[in-house]
Amino acid sequence: MSGHYYVPESSRWPVFAVLVIALFAVGAAASLSFGSGAPLMFAGLAGILLVMFFWFRDVARESMAGLYDQQMDRSFRQGMAWFIFSEIMFFSAFFGALFYIRMFALPWLDGEGAKGISALLWPEFVASWPLLNPPGDNINGPVAVIDPWHLPLINTLLLVSSSVTLTLSHHALKKNKLSASQGWLAVTLLLGFSFLVIQGVEYVEAYQKLGLTLQAGVYGGTFFLLTGFHGLHVTIGALTLLVIFIRLLRRHFSAAQHFGFEAAAWYWHFVDVVWLGLFIFVYVV
Question: What's the pLDDT at 6?
């Protein structure tokens, strides 16, 4: 294969991926809007997991067959870099919306700035953040907000620690210490899935005790959009690392060739950095 560019065989997985993602999106939208889309949403989620499994399987088989050369490796790296860039833009849009609401929309409704005439809509509205008293009588804000120095702080420590253990696993792999690499990666997985469990506990507390829901005004909407999409990315990252862990146990990687591990690590570190932004701008500030 030296000097040649490997062109993968035609794959049906991209088409299937689009279909199951669309199914999941339609189900999620129907569930939020009408309360009746749960079966479609879970069917789409199951389809996503199946497509991931079979697609990962095919890529692993091609890699183990020695079909990938240096040119293919560069293509993988460039593709992963562009993918992470697209994710940066994705979260930038949500952070931008949060910034716009806090710095412009709310002050305008309170009579400040160039569009302060907006205060005529709700004369008694007072801008504050977190917004516990949304304007209008048909929306009830949350009773209180989540204490950032409790569960969110624990989750921050978990994710930061997981980045450290993942880096230790990577360094061990580069030194061909497979047992040490497997051990540190197992710890990373434990920390990642613990994060998801704690976030689930946090959501239950928010809904049942604090009145912090998707319907609790703009604060509730931005809170769950940002933390929910991040939780989805953590789930995807953890499942990807689980696949890498299984491949590591099967000795699919060596000190010289392990881009699959590196790509998963890049994604995980990106997710950790996003969480630091969430912790500061959603929970603390």
Answer: 65
Q: What is the dihedral of CA 175, 178, 181, 183, to 10 degrees?
A: -150
Residue, of 163 and 10, whose pLDDT is higher: 163
Quick one: residue 66, left, alpha or beta (phi over 0 = left, psi -120 to 50 = alpha)?
Answer: left
In the chain, which ranges are continuous DSSP H helix? 13-34, 38-64, 70-100, 106-109, 151-174, 178-205, 217-249, 259-278
Residue 3 has pLDDT above 70, yes or no: no
Distance (Å, rounded) from C-alpha 183 to C-alpha 166? 10
- What would the pLDDT profile of 242-261 be if each residue is shown by its tens digit? 999 999 999 999 998 899 99
Q: What are the Cα distances from residue 14, in Å, to 10, 11, 96, 154?
A: 10, 7, 30, 37
Phi-psi region of 253 (alpha: psi -120 to 50; beta: other; left: phi over 0): beta
The identity of residue 26, as a single letter, is: V
* Closest to 106 measured CA to CA, from 285, 281, 97: 97
pTM of the shown model: 0.89
CB 240 within 8 A of CB 158: no
Domains of the chain are 1-68 (1.10.287.70), 72-284 (1.20.120.80)
CB atoms within 10 A of CB 18: 11
Closest CA to 269 of 21, 125, 88: 88
pLDDT of residue 1: 45
